[in-house]
Write a structure and sequence with these properties.
The chain contains nine helices and four strands, in the order βαβααβαβααααα. By secondary structure, it is an alpha/beta fold.
Length: 209
Protein backbone atom coordinates (compact mmCIF):
# COMPACT_ATOMS: atom_id res chain seq x y z
CA UNK A 1 0.00 0.00 0.00
CA UNK A 2 0.98 3.60 -0.53
CA UNK A 3 -0.11 6.76 1.26
CA UNK A 4 -1.44 7.59 4.70
CA UNK A 5 -3.77 5.13 6.44
CA UNK A 6 -6.36 7.87 7.02
CA UNK A 7 -6.36 9.10 3.40
CA UNK A 8 -9.32 8.33 1.09
CA UNK A 9 -8.76 4.75 -0.14
CA UNK A 10 -8.43 3.92 -3.82
CA UNK A 11 -8.35 0.24 -4.86
CA UNK A 12 -6.61 -0.74 -8.10
CA UNK A 13 -7.84 -3.96 -9.75
CA UNK A 14 -5.79 -5.50 -12.57
CA UNK A 15 -6.95 -7.45 -15.61
CA UNK A 16 -6.79 -10.96 -17.00
CA UNK A 17 -3.64 -12.80 -15.98
CA UNK A 18 -2.03 -9.56 -14.76
CA UNK A 19 -0.51 -9.13 -11.33
CA UNK A 20 -0.93 -6.12 -9.09
CA UNK A 21 2.57 -4.87 -9.94
CA UNK A 22 1.28 -3.89 -13.39
CA UNK A 23 0.11 -0.84 -11.48
CA UNK A 24 3.62 0.62 -11.42
CA UNK A 25 5.12 1.65 -8.09
CA UNK A 26 5.74 5.17 -9.39
CA UNK A 27 2.12 5.50 -10.54
CA UNK A 28 0.95 4.40 -7.08
CA UNK A 29 3.30 6.90 -5.42
CA UNK A 30 1.88 9.67 -7.62
CA UNK A 31 -1.66 8.77 -6.56
CA UNK A 32 -0.54 8.76 -2.93
CA UNK A 33 1.00 12.16 -3.54
CA UNK A 34 -2.45 13.35 -4.59
CA UNK A 35 -3.79 12.42 -1.16
CA UNK A 36 -4.98 8.81 -1.60
CA UNK A 37 -4.33 5.60 0.30
CA UNK A 38 -3.46 3.34 -2.64
CA UNK A 39 -4.30 -0.36 -2.40
CA UNK A 40 -3.44 -2.94 -5.05
CA UNK A 41 -3.75 -6.72 -4.86
CA UNK A 42 -3.41 -9.91 -6.89
CA UNK A 43 -6.71 -11.30 -8.09
CA UNK A 44 -7.40 -14.94 -7.26
CA UNK A 45 -5.43 -17.45 -9.34
CA UNK A 46 -2.52 -15.12 -10.18
CA UNK A 47 0.66 -13.79 -8.58
CA UNK A 48 0.82 -14.45 -4.84
CA UNK A 49 -2.92 -14.79 -4.31
CA UNK A 50 -4.96 -17.94 -3.62
CA UNK A 51 -4.70 -20.59 -6.35
CA UNK A 52 -7.67 -22.71 -7.36
CA UNK A 53 -7.79 -26.03 -9.20
CA UNK A 54 -9.80 -27.70 -11.93
CA UNK A 55 -10.92 -26.41 -15.27
CA UNK A 56 -9.47 -26.81 -18.73
CA UNK A 57 -8.77 -24.76 -21.81
CA UNK A 58 -11.73 -23.56 -23.83
CA UNK A 59 -12.62 -25.79 -26.78
CA UNK A 60 -13.37 -24.53 -30.27
CA UNK A 61 -16.99 -25.69 -29.87
CA UNK A 62 -17.40 -23.69 -26.67
CA UNK A 63 -16.07 -20.58 -28.37
CA UNK A 64 -18.48 -21.08 -31.29
CA UNK A 65 -21.43 -21.50 -28.92
CA UNK A 66 -20.38 -18.40 -27.03
CA UNK A 67 -19.90 -16.30 -30.17
CA UNK A 68 -22.96 -17.29 -32.17
CA UNK A 69 -25.47 -18.68 -29.65
CA UNK A 70 -24.54 -16.55 -26.64
CA UNK A 71 -24.35 -19.67 -24.48
CA UNK A 72 -22.12 -19.01 -21.42
CA UNK A 73 -19.28 -21.43 -20.74
CA UNK A 74 -18.92 -23.42 -17.53
CA UNK A 75 -16.53 -21.99 -14.95
CA UNK A 76 -15.11 -22.70 -11.51
CA UNK A 77 -16.07 -19.18 -10.37
CA UNK A 78 -17.48 -15.98 -11.87
CA UNK A 79 -16.75 -12.27 -11.76
CA UNK A 80 -19.15 -11.81 -8.86
CA UNK A 81 -16.92 -14.10 -6.80
CA UNK A 82 -13.93 -11.94 -7.67
CA UNK A 83 -15.99 -8.88 -6.73
CA UNK A 84 -16.63 -10.50 -3.35
CA UNK A 85 -12.86 -10.97 -3.02
CA UNK A 86 -12.48 -7.20 -3.41
CA UNK A 87 -15.16 -6.50 -0.80
CA UNK A 88 -13.50 -9.04 1.49
CA UNK A 89 -10.24 -7.13 1.18
CA UNK A 90 -12.03 -3.90 2.16
CA UNK A 91 -13.51 -5.72 5.16
CA UNK A 92 -10.10 -7.04 6.21
CA UNK A 93 -8.64 -3.53 6.02
CA UNK A 94 -11.57 -1.98 7.90
CA UNK A 95 -12.59 0.17 4.92
CA UNK A 96 -16.29 1.01 4.56
CA UNK A 97 -16.05 2.38 1.01
CA UNK A 98 -13.37 3.15 -1.55
CA UNK A 99 -12.73 4.59 -4.97
CA UNK A 100 -12.45 1.66 -7.41
CA UNK A 101 -10.22 1.66 -10.50
CA UNK A 102 -10.21 -1.41 -12.72
CA UNK A 103 -8.45 -2.21 -15.98
CA UNK A 104 -9.94 -4.69 -18.48
CA UNK A 105 -11.14 -7.68 -16.41
CA UNK A 106 -10.44 -5.53 -13.36
CA UNK A 107 -12.94 -3.01 -14.68
CA UNK A 108 -15.51 -5.79 -14.99
CA UNK A 109 -14.84 -6.78 -11.37
CA UNK A 110 -15.17 -3.16 -10.28
CA UNK A 111 -18.49 -2.93 -12.16
CA UNK A 112 -19.72 -6.06 -10.34
CA UNK A 113 -18.77 -4.52 -6.98
CA UNK A 114 -20.62 -1.33 -7.90
CA UNK A 115 -23.75 -3.23 -8.95
CA UNK A 116 -23.85 -5.68 -6.04
CA UNK A 117 -22.29 -3.62 -3.23
CA UNK A 118 -22.97 0.04 -4.17
CA UNK A 119 -22.54 1.20 -0.58
CA UNK A 120 -18.88 0.14 -0.73
CA UNK A 121 -18.06 2.29 -3.80
CA UNK A 122 -17.26 6.01 -3.74
CA UNK A 123 -16.45 6.29 -7.45
CA UNK A 124 -15.92 3.84 -10.31
CA UNK A 125 -13.26 4.20 -12.99
CA UNK A 126 -13.46 1.45 -15.60
CA UNK A 127 -10.51 1.38 -18.03
CA UNK A 128 -10.65 -0.42 -21.41
CA UNK A 129 -13.36 -2.63 -19.96
CA UNK A 130 -16.69 -3.67 -21.55
CA UNK A 131 -20.02 -4.19 -19.83
CA UNK A 132 -20.97 -7.41 -21.58
CA UNK A 133 -23.38 -5.63 -23.93
CA UNK A 134 -23.06 -7.52 -27.26
CA UNK A 135 -23.77 -4.30 -29.17
CA UNK A 136 -20.44 -2.85 -28.08
CA UNK A 137 -17.42 -3.27 -30.38
CA UNK A 138 -15.75 -6.66 -29.98
CA UNK A 139 -11.98 -7.29 -29.70
CA UNK A 140 -10.06 -7.39 -32.96
CA UNK A 141 -9.20 -10.83 -34.29
CA UNK A 142 -5.54 -10.20 -33.46
CA UNK A 143 -6.30 -9.19 -29.87
CA UNK A 144 -8.67 -12.11 -29.32
CA UNK A 145 -6.10 -14.57 -30.71
CA UNK A 146 -3.41 -13.16 -28.41
CA UNK A 147 -5.62 -13.49 -25.32
CA UNK A 148 -6.71 -17.02 -26.25
CA UNK A 149 -3.22 -18.33 -27.06
CA UNK A 150 -1.74 -20.92 -24.67
CA UNK A 151 0.24 -19.06 -22.01
CA UNK A 152 4.03 -19.52 -22.05
CA UNK A 153 5.63 -21.30 -19.12
CA UNK A 154 9.37 -20.57 -19.44
CA UNK A 155 11.00 -17.23 -18.74
CA UNK A 156 12.24 -16.31 -22.22
CA UNK A 157 8.95 -17.16 -23.92
CA UNK A 158 7.03 -15.27 -21.27
CA UNK A 159 9.12 -12.10 -21.71
CA UNK A 160 8.71 -12.33 -25.50
CA UNK A 161 4.95 -12.89 -25.30
CA UNK A 162 4.55 -10.10 -22.75
CA UNK A 163 5.97 -7.54 -25.18
CA UNK A 164 3.90 -8.94 -28.08
CA UNK A 165 0.70 -8.84 -26.05
CA UNK A 166 1.11 -5.28 -24.91
CA UNK A 167 2.11 -4.17 -28.39
CA UNK A 168 -1.30 -5.41 -29.57
CA UNK A 169 -3.26 -4.03 -26.61
CA UNK A 170 -1.71 -0.56 -26.79
CA UNK A 171 -2.65 -0.13 -30.47
CA UNK A 172 0.21 2.23 -31.16
CA UNK A 173 3.82 3.06 -30.40
CA UNK A 174 4.53 4.23 -26.85
CA UNK A 175 8.32 4.22 -26.27
CA UNK A 176 8.17 4.99 -22.54
CA UNK A 177 5.93 2.00 -21.84
CA UNK A 178 7.73 -0.29 -24.26
CA UNK A 179 11.01 0.45 -22.49
CA UNK A 180 9.52 -0.96 -19.28
CA UNK A 181 8.11 -4.15 -20.80
CA UNK A 182 11.08 -6.39 -20.10
CA UNK A 183 11.43 -5.27 -16.47
CA UNK A 184 7.68 -5.71 -15.90
CA UNK A 185 7.76 -9.17 -17.47
CA UNK A 186 10.78 -10.29 -15.43
CA UNK A 187 9.20 -9.06 -12.21
CA UNK A 188 5.89 -10.77 -12.98
CA UNK A 189 7.61 -14.04 -13.85
CA UNK A 190 9.64 -13.93 -10.62
CA UNK A 191 6.52 -13.35 -8.47
CA UNK A 192 4.85 -16.43 -9.91
CA UNK A 193 2.81 -17.37 -12.97
CA UNK A 194 -0.24 -19.61 -12.98
CA UNK A 195 -1.21 -20.51 -16.58
CA UNK A 196 -4.12 -22.68 -15.46
CA UNK A 197 -5.38 -19.81 -13.31
CA UNK A 198 -5.39 -17.46 -16.29
CA UNK A 199 -7.63 -19.96 -18.06
CA UNK A 200 -10.00 -20.03 -15.08
CA UNK A 201 -10.08 -16.23 -14.98
CA UNK A 202 -10.98 -16.15 -18.69
CA UNK A 203 -13.76 -18.67 -18.09
CA UNK A 204 -15.04 -16.48 -15.25
CA UNK A 205 -15.32 -13.55 -17.66
CA UNK A 206 -17.05 -15.57 -20.38
CA UNK A 207 -19.44 -17.22 -17.90
CA UNK A 208 -20.55 -13.92 -16.37
CA UNK A 209 -22.47 -12.38 -19.23
Amino acid sequence: MFGADDAPPIVLIMGLGAQMIMWDDEFCRQLAGRGFRVIRFDNRDIGQSTKFSGGRRLTAMELLKLRFLRIPVASEYKLIDMAKDTVGLLDALGIKSAHLVGASMGGMIAQEVTLSFPQRVRTLTSIMSPTGDPRLPQPTREAAAMLMAPPPTNRDDYIRRFAQTWNVLRVGHFPQDEAKDRERAERSFARGLNPAGVGRQLRAVLASG
